[in-house]
Amino acid sequence: MSADNAYSRFVNWAKIILPLAALVLLSTLFLLARTTGDTTEIPFADLQEITSQQRISAPTISGVTNSGDAYQISADVAKFSQEDTDQIQIDSIAITINSATGTDIDLIAGTGEYDSAERMVALRNLVRITTTNGYVMETIGAWANLGTGDIETTGILEVRSPFGEFSAGHLSISRDESGAQQMVFNEGVRLVYEPQP
Fold it and tell me: By its UniProt entry, which InterPro entries does this protein fall under (predicted)?
């Protein structure tokens, strides 16, 4: 008889304790879910900015300069300006100019801006210029005119060349009157000559 009473008391207590324990567990889960959050959430302001812009992933633009040099522009992301449809903001830009008669040139920059009407590209942040005749140059800004094929830096550059390292305040790559490609370094050129063995 006493065993039946003990079992009945256990069942009655279980009817009260088990639902309470379930409520505690559920409330703990909800609290943890709210405080932790989802790390992949995109803030609403960022979402609005992304959806309001026209973006292209991994774009490529190809063409030919007036002197017959083929060029190609590639990037991670291109964003069209809402104010001027000719202006395109570009992230992680790379330009290759394959010269018809001279030296091929590669340009890489963190960001850039392409003006499709003027066929001009502004390269910003760290810009690296590499040529097939052995020059590797780094600067903080440059312009590339895809109409003429001319390139011009906007800041001091450090250069590694086949004959040594040097710095200069300015570089321009263009064609002379005969159509030959030429690189001109000026504005305080300082050279460390390394004679070849």
Answer: LipoPS_assembly_LptC-rel
